Amino acid sequence: MTNRVAAGLAGLLLLTTACAEQPTPPARESKLSTVLFLGDSIAEGEALPLTEAFAASGVRFTSIAADGGGNVVGPFSEENWKKLPEQIASATPSVVVYQITTYDWGTQREQQAAYEKLLTTVTDTGAKLVFVTAPPITPDDFYAPHMADLERAPEAARAVRSATVLDASAVWGNTYQQKRNGKADRSTDGIHTCPQGAARFAAWLLDELAALFPGFTPADPKTWANTGWAADKRFTGC
Fold it and tell me: Where do the H-state alpha helices sit in 25-173?
């Protein structure tokens, strides 16, 4: 994490529900003009600060992250694929970010085939695909039989030719950690994020995208950290 982000995130530890009107900044010239975010319910929570962060940075952002799914391989993926190509095309994205979901179950061959299919679907629209690894979870009885699948999913994504895979362990570490700096970072359910964690992830992701797309300059986190999104009911166990 850069010193700039570390400094900006000091204010994120003081997240409140206060909301202040922020003028919409003019769009910056950048190849990162429109971002489409895919994932599961973890990504749904992360999309809240991302919406504010991208808006403050002059980038159009859309999330189609889905509670209980959002995956391209594993359970429900067959149904997801019936609508996903049209969802991607209609968003006219320049970049699609797919956070690997907690439902990406299957063999490495199945995972890689699905990720290859996603890459083809995205590039056919003229967009770039960026994979992001999921935060580590504390498995319950539901997830325990599938942890080997989830652990090898990033490897399957990296095996996709021309894929960009961002390792979010820089944000979350390699094991579930409920609190950081004395504040709730992850939900007590062992799966989801709290506002502080979601904000740290948003700042990290924007910096990573700035490295990939040099014309893009992320807004200072102070401009979007306290705009009211932290009060959303999606954040539980915090």
Answer: 41-56, 77-91, 108-123, 147-158, 169-172
Contact 28, 35 (CB under 8 A): no
201 contacts: CB under 8 Å, gap ≥ 6 = 46, 49, 135, 168, 171, 172, 193
Q: Give all domains of the chain, ordered by start, each with its CATH number.
A: 3-8+30-231 (3.40.50.1110)
- Using CA atoms, how far residue 196 sits from 10, 104, 135, 201, in Å, is 10, 26, 14, 9
- 124-158 pLDDT, tens digit per residue, is 999 999 999 999 999 999 999 999 999 999 999 99
- Classify 17 as helix, strand or coil: coil
3-state secondary structure of 153: helix
For the record, the structure tokens of 157 come out as 């994504």
Determine contact, residues 90/121, Cβ cutoff 8 Å.
no
| Tokens matching residue 18 | 């206060």
Q: Does residue 62 sit in helix, strand or coil? A: strand
**What does the alpha-carbon distance between residue 94 and residue 106 come to, in Å, rounded to a whole number?**
29
Write the DSSP assignment of 28-59 as a string of letters: PP-S--EEEEE-SHHHHHHHHHHHHHHHHTT-
**Stretches in the chain below the pLDDT threshold 50:** 1-11, 13-30
